[in-house]
């Protein structure tokens, strides 16, 4: 569970930093012509007066559920460790299978530590967003 939460936190932290820097997906988020950058960043995109519509939030939740149950799982039962979602896919001569056991253990520890740092980072960003103010690099919250 910690590994999965860490992976989600790494994506969340990167998403926060990226959108606050002004990078948004091109195009419209819906058929009504609302662009991705027309919605606020952070928690305000989910809760508040300018939040995405409720149906959009449900679509996000169902998509995450689909990924959880149908994609990001050890479907074949051949994973070497918890969180190994390769499902029998071999990634060429530079893939995971070519690492030594010591290298694999080190890389797994690095991912776990980065996930722990990202969990603290995203929680910090969420708290600062609720407190308000302006901060270096991320700007106005």
Care to give the gist of this entry?
This protein is mainly α. It is about 50% helix and about 5% strand.
Explain the overall architecture.
The protein has 141 residues and is mainly alpha-helical. The protein has 3 helices and 2 strands; from the N terminus they run αααββ. It has helices spanning 2-20, 54-71, 101-131, and strands at residues 134-135, 139-140. The protein has a two-stranded antiparallel sheet. A hairpin with a 3-residue loop joins β1 and β2. The longest helix is centred in the C-terminal third of the chain and has 31 residues, at 101-131. It is globular. The mean pLDDT is 86.
Instruction: Determine the fraction of residues in helical runs and give it as a percent range.
Output: 40-55%
Mean pLDDT: 86
Q: Detail the poorly predicted runs.
A: none
Number of helices: 3
Widest beta sheet: strand line-up: 1-2
SSE sequence, one letter per element: HHHEE
Which structural category fits the helices and strands?
A: mainly alpha
Percent in strands: under 5%
Mind telling me the C-alpha Rg? 18 Å
How many strand elements?
2
- Main beta sheet: 2 strands, antiparallel
Shape: globular
Distance between the termini: 30 Å
């Amino acid at each position: 569970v910690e590994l999965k939460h860490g992976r989600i936190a790494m994506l969340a932290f990167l998403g926060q930093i990226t959108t606050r820097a002004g990078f948004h997906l091109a195009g419209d988020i819906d058929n009504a012509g609302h662009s991705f950058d027309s919605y606020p960043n952070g928690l305000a995109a989910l809760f508040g007066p300018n939040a995405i519509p409720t149906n959009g939030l449900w679509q996000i939740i169902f998509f995450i559920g689909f990924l959880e149950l149908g994609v990001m799982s050890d479907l074949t039962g051949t994973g070497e460790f918890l969180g190994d979602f390769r499902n029998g896919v071999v990634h060429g001569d530079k893939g995971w299978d070519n690492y030594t056991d010591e290298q694999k253990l080190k890389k797994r520890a690095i991912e776990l530590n980065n996930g722990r740092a990202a969990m603290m980072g995203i929680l910090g960003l969420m708290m600062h967003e609720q407190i308000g103010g302006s901060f270096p690099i991320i700007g106005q919250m």
